[in-house]
Specification:
Layout: H1 3-13, H2 38-52, E1 58-68, H3 71-83, E2 88-92, H4 100-105, E3 108-111, H5 119-137
Parallel strand pairs: 1-2, 1-3
Length: 145
């Protein structure tokens, strides 16, 4: 990832306390060429994502056509999962999205935007939104409703 992505993610994740830690786990993107079998590439990437999941993780697929929520609704949902003791795993696909296996495995499908966002930007936006959720849940003045 470009340094601006790493810096952006670090800016928000370092602000979070240990009990709300965010761990970013990358999987290598399959090399693509004009003759690449895109479905095979997506399946390989998705298999690598699935291998990173822990047993009992609450898996959410991040997709353009997923459920859109405002910040307060996202905070309520994440708080509910935390109160249930769920470990939240957010799956973000590569340029060609997630495999059907990942989408089926996911218990929920969320959207950050109706826009198609580049993967590096999604990483920064997700980190910021998770920090924002924490501020909402803790009455911190960062978020203004």
């Amino acid at each position: 990832m470009p340094s601006w992505v790493e810096q952006g993610v670090l800016e928000y994740t370092r602000r979070l306390p240990a009990d709300f830690a965010v761990l970013v786990q990358e999987v290598a993107m399959e090399k693509r060429s004009k003759s690449s079998n895109i479905a095979r590439c997506v399946n390989k990437e998705s298999s690598a994502l699935i291998a990173k999941l822990g047993p009992g993780d609450h898996v959410v697929a991040m997709e353009v056509d997923g459920k859109a929520m405002d910040t307060d609704a996202l905070a309520r949902r994440i708080n509910q999962l935390r109160q249930e003791g769920q470990n939240l795993s957010l799956l973000v696909g590569g340029p060609d999205g997630l495999s059907s296996e990942c989408r089926t495995l996911a218990r929920e499908h969320w959207s950050l935007s109706a826009l198609t966002l580049p993967h590096p930007l999604v990483r920064v936006v997700l980190a910021e939104q998770l920090y924002r959720v924490w501020t909402v849940l803790n009455g911190h003045p960062y978020h203004r409703s």
